[in-house]
Design a protein that fits this description.
The structure is a homodimer.
Chain A lengths: L8 H15 L14 H14 L13 E4 L13 H13 L12 H6 L2 H6 L1 H13 L4 H14 L15 H12 L3 E9 H5 L2 H5 L6 E13 L2 E12 L5 H9 L6 E4 L5 H8 L11 E8 L6 E2 L10 H9 L2 E4 H4 L8
Parallel strand pairs in A: 1-2, 1-5, 2-3, 5-6, 6-8
Antiparallel strand pairs in A: 3-4, 6-7
Helix pairs in contact in A: 3-6
Chain lengths: ~325, ~325
Amino acid sequence: MGLKLRVNPGIAALLTAVLLASTVARAEDVLPSWREGPARDAIIAFVGAVTKEGADSYVPPVERVATFDNDGTLWSEQPVYFQLLFALDRIRALAPQHPEWKDTEPFKSAISGDMEGLKAGGMDGLMKIVAASHTGVTADEFAAAARTWLGASRHPQTGKPYTEMVYQPMLELLDYLRANEFSVFIVSGGGIDFLRVFAEEVYGVAPEQVVGSTLEAHFELRDGIPVIVRDAKVSLIDDKAGKPVGIYRHIGRRPIFAAGNSDGDLQMLQYTTIPRSSADTRPRFGLIVRHTDAEREYAYDRQSAIGKLDQALDEAPRRGWLVVDMKKDWRTVYPGA
Amino acid sequence: MGLKLRVNPGIAALLTAVLLASTVARAEDVLPSWREGPARDAIIAFVGAVTKEGADSYVPPVERVATFDNDGTLWSEQPVYFQLLFALDRIRALAPQHPEWKDTEPFKSAISGDMEGLKAGGMDGLMKIVAASHTGVTADEFAAAARTWLGASRHPQTGKPYTEMVYQPMLELLDYLRANEFSVFIVSGGGIDFLRVFAEEVYGVAPEQVVGSTLEAHFELRDGIPVIVRDAKVSLIDDKAGKPVGIYRHIGRRPIFAAGNSDGDLQMLQYTTIPRSSADTRPRFGLIVRHTDAEREYAYDRQSAIGKLDQALDEAPRRGWLVVDMKKDWRTVYPGA
């Protein structure tokens, strides 16, 4: 700029103090919904290590990539994934235009809400539900339908809007990482476009920082208007071994922090935390949210059909992943509780 | 924070002046490698309109998405795409491990540098070159090979490193947009992982802001080390109608600014600039770099095999896209020239 300034040393010191005061929060202000104890301490110690300039453990801000699973990690996933409930409601809404559905599986079970009938249809049936409820429309039409559903629907057990069934301690963790110059991404088995409808408002995660299962799509000028049309073909199942692929495809950097809650997150945790060589001594953090709180949320792990946590739980001690015990480690679960 | 400060009003005024001086550059400091005239004026007027708080034309920062093609828009693309030169050099480097290549097309032509022979093989031959040169290795191995090549190779005509054949006026445009709180993305027909090797250093564009043609990949633990392996299957050709799909997939927001130079960018320009309805009055900007400078760079458009600009040039006046005349509108082409 060529701009010269003479600043009184006293003022310079004052300015420095103000800047420090506004960026360095006191330890007790951090993660207030986490109970004091080893889980909270481990997170704070890791963030302290990677942000400490001059230390061997320091990681430059551009490389502070953190990835979070969504279902069961940022919001609840019981009795079934919320996006499946959206799909079923959408099948019901579209049923009048498809009279043949009332005699055809899996639509017949979807319309009547027969979960056992749906399960009997297996993955094949599920893909038909996804195709019928999620494709053949434009991107804007799909986003509008998801937005309307999220605004109007309530959870069958809690009666809450789904977007209020997010975990307050995890919202604080997202904020804490961002305050320490992490880039925070969602990496979910759920649909990327469903997530993008609420991720920015609810989690502060911008659309371009959402990675999820992805359908093929195509572009066209429809009556002269540019539209993206969603096709009934899968581009990426962003689950299990698909998660590191989604990270590679969308982020192009290996995270230094990953959080999940099920075996669907196992490979993301491995990809994030296992050193690439003996020279790779960069600090890395793996976190597993364990659902241990039948009273405030749900309790499930090794035997659950949704969010099964088994192999990742076995690997956690060996890999040094932090297993968060929801009941013990979290002061509150949902916001405003 | 509960922190109270008493600041001398004179100091407050000084601080305000310093802050303003460092963020609001004077008009003549902006885009210095662009000659004064209608092209530069149009860009500055657009940025002024979308950043003017309170105006109807105002666009909030999170929605200020700008997308740039790479080949022919940010760096040169003649005599052929630089990534193709990388692919051919890599075929030559790998040839000793594949003695059968010396008698098999398209490898025979690739090894001898016979461009006519390569052309005769068409798209089929090209895909074999891509598969042999770009797949079957891990993501890290591929990035290392591309990095080494970019560091060691020189352009056959200018003798410059490829990363110095970027357009200084466009680098200034990227910076100018970022200074005005735009998010700048590359959306290229070139390979996403090739681009990511140099985009951050050369363009200031982070890996997660690069969209490009994408191969399938898979994750594995190889001898206990997590790796991404590049597969010989295309996930996305990020060119022509694929560009809006790449934008939808990676960014999840419609840009308000797009820049390209060829018919490969036509659909991205349409997607960015055509209003979705009569109520959609948001300002939008389409920019085409026209290669008119045989002396300082290259001159080509409607008849060129590489970077053909024909249909998009015909549409430009009707759509209101700015056609930048490289020879007339740019004071310099390459940095340091």
